Amino acid sequence: MTQYIRRKVDNAGAAASALAGGVSAGLFPGFIAQYLQRLAGGAQELGKLVGNWRERAGMFCQGNLQKLIEVFQSNPDPIINSEGQLIAETTRRYEFLTEAANALRDANIIEKPMAFVRYFDREMFSGALGDFLKNPTIAVDLEGLAYITAGAAIAWGVYEGAKYVGKRTYNYARQKISDYRARRAQENKT
Description:
Largest sheet: none
Oligomer: single chain
Number of strands: 0
Shape: elongated
Helix content: over 70%
């Protein structure tokens, strides 16, 4: 009877682990959609500013935006100089957000987590997470089902691995205690 109960508890633990892993992984595509939306929106807004500066570079610096930035930054007036720094930083941010959005949009199901890590942006992550927590979604398309399946399999594997390590550790500790007791009993006899 004890063995039966132990087996049922173990099966329930494995099922709960797989379910938790599947649900957690199934949330990933929905979160990535929110994150991608933020990246693309940020890039679009910054693109308007960068476009204006590129027009100015076209009028005054033969279309070379870097040259326009250098003209601003070389000016001794701190206001104009700081404008050059602003143009440079905004342009870098725009290029990063554009590259990140394109990479996530173009990534296949296996590349998507790696692209997310590679183009992680704390500001965009925080905003996307806030929106996602208000309305979490589990994707039930082919990609979502693949993530659910992978998450369930990984969580089940972790559960089984932890169980195996736990049993081995328990048996090792029991053996050490038994050996210690045997030595102490042997010492007490002599």
